Amino acid sequence: MHSDNTHNHVGYLWYKPDTTVRTVFIYDFHIFNASQGQGLGKQSLRAFENYLQAQNFKEIRLRVAGDNDRARHVYEASGFGVTGFNMSKSITDCGTDN
């Protein structure tokens, strides 16, 4: 993706469409550090959403790390809602019963 006024790359968006159920899954979305804090994440998501609506897609899905507050803010401000939680358990300490 690039900024309209400079044509410099400001980030990237990696996604996969599912044309059967008309959904898209975002695998990775990143605005480079030098371009963060300018609203480009929200602008990019809005433009992507408009593009997908024109293609008759119905839903955008993604996963975001629970500790990635900045990304969660961008997604929530763009209308995304929490639909589940990821969970993990470290099993490197084999001597415990927990």
Automatic annotation (TrEMBL):
Domain N-acetyltransferase: 1-98
GO molecular function, one term: acyltransferase activity, transferring groups other than amino-acyl groups
InterPro entries given in the database record: Acyl_CoA_acyltransferase (IPR016181), GNAT_dom (IPR000182)
One Pfam family hit: Acetyltransf_1
CDD domains in UniProt: NAT_SF
Keyword Transferase attributed: yes
Keyword Transmembrane: no
Keywords: Transferase
Protein name, UniProt field: GCN5-related N-acetyltransferase
